[in-house]
Amino acid sequence: MRLPYALLGLLALVAFPAGSAGGDALARCERSILGGSDAYFARRGAALARCVAKAARCPAAFASQATAADDPCLAAVAGRCQARLAAARRAGARLEGVGARCTEPRPRGFGVPAVSFFDVDEGLAFDDIGAFCPQMAVRPEDAGDASRCQRAALACNDDAALVAAAPRAADLLARLGLALDDGGCLRASLCGNGQLDDGEECDDGPENSDTLPDHCRTDCSDPWCGDGVVDPGDGEECEPPGTLLCDADCQDRLPLGPLGGLVRERAAVTPAVAQADGTAAAPPEALAACQQAILRGTRRLFDRTRRPLERCVARLAHCFVGPDGGSDACLARATAPCQAVVAQRDALRAAAVGRTLPRCAAVSPAQLLDPAGGLGFARAAASCPFPAAGAPGAADVVDCAYRTVACAAEAAVARVMPSAYVMLGERDLDPDTAFPCLTDPEADQ
DSSP code of 282? Predict the structure, then answer.
């Protein structure tokens, strides 16, 4: 159980009196983590976004499954991407070395005691970082392992933001020879012994599935409208309900094909494609321009959401180890920027969407959603609430992408600063309400 944060501050001050060498070391360590993670985000995120944007401009990007091995345009993009990703890998290597530098004795390191680096109650809470990289073995109080886990978690988070902005990014990068690593962020299920135990609705053992229709789910619940899988046996046409694509009864808002792809009808005389909404398909260059605008805008939104939140959490942390010694005035000054992030968030996203929409004017909602011949936002749209009646418009689809990226930006802060959730919670900023995507690492363990 976590102690009240006011007490945590006192504990930290016992270990590091305000303005002490120890407090300065912890502050330098935190600045190195923030700087290293920001550089990694900047180099890796920008490199991958640029690679996808450049690849989208190649004529074969959306018209075929050509690869860099057989398409000159894609090959040229791949060559440039390799150099940019080399710089990103160097930034990642520097970030992986920060933990060891923090805990290494002076003069080579900052001389931060292990308890101040790892402990949830007295330090930076890197004991919790393993929750974000379950695929890795993170040894207790091994600062090198903690930093490697942090780097992997940030890569996974960055990939999630990229795919939210460009759903076909993984495919394009694979065709460039630059496949994404998802960080192994899936979790094993608990039930599945084939016996109906207390609290279970069903259990078919190895036949349980979260992807097959009309099967017992891996949490041992019966299939139902809202479980993420279309179950024709129950009369469902789509999942999940209440989204851009699916109404509250799991019935389609838009005409969908057998695998959730948008229905397209080819005209008898002309090769132009008629979309499900009756509009003509945008040419490849219009798709590329729209995708580039979304990538550019979401990358800017990611940074403008993440950086202010990181700064406000860093100010809160500084109040306990800096010269103010956790004073009310210091905490008030630190809390104000956090409140400003909440107040400005929706306006920031709305302005970003407004700047993007003119570049996507030629692309219909159907083509934005189409996973085969369009930009492929159907999967992301299926997770965005849409309480209105009728079919979604292009603005709804683009806004969905921006919301998902903003959520990833909040989640990134917890991976940079594992104590962020509890710090904000102790300053009367309920993170579950104010920052709903900011992860509590203890909840993931």
Answer: P
In a domain, 22, yes or no: yes
Does 316 fall in a domain? yes
Domain-located, residue 415: yes
Whole-angstrom Cα distance, residue 274 to residue 280?
Answer: 5
Report the domain count for the chain. 1
Mean pLDDT of the chain: 81
The answer to whether 371 and 378 have CB atoms below 8 angstroms apart is yes
| Predicted confidence (pLDDT) at residue 105 exceeds the cutoff of 60 | yes
Q: Is residue 250 part of a domain?
A: no
Domain span including residue 28? 5-183+283-444
Residue by residue, DSSP assigns 71-90 as -HHHHHHHHHHHHHHHHHHH
DSSP 367-424: HHH-TTTS--THHHHTTSB--SSS---HHHHHHHHHHHHHHHHHHHHHHH-TTHHHHH
CA 300 – CA 184 distance, rounded (Å): 27
Cα→Cα distances 357→7, 290, 304, 362, Å: 49, 8, 19, 10
**Nearest-angstrom CA–CA distance, 413 and 222:** 36
Amino acid type, 226 = G
Among 178, 171, 206, 182, smallest CA distance to 192 is for 206
pLDDT at 194: 61
Query: What pLDDT digit, counting tens, does each position of 260-306 carry?
Result: 444 443 333 323 344 444 556 788 999 999 999 999 999 999 999 99
3 state SS of 184: coil
Tokens standing for residue 44: 């890796």
428 is written with which tokens? 């009367």
Q: What is the pTM of this model?
A: 0.76
3-state secondary structure of 274: strand
Residue ranges of the alpha helices (H) in 41-168? 46-56, 72-96, 98-103, 114-118, 143-165
In the chain, the percentage of residues whose pLDDT exceeds 90 is 36
Backbone φ/ψ region at 351: left (φ over 0), alpha (ψ -120 to 50), beta = alpha
Distance CA 56, CA 75 (A): 13
Q: Which two tokens stand for residue 112?
A: 């931060």
d(CA 391, CA 374): 18
For tokens 């010269």, name the residue.
Answer: 323
Structure tokens belonging to residue 413: 């802060």
Plot region of 260 (φ>0 → left; ψ -120 to 50 → alpha; else → beta) = left
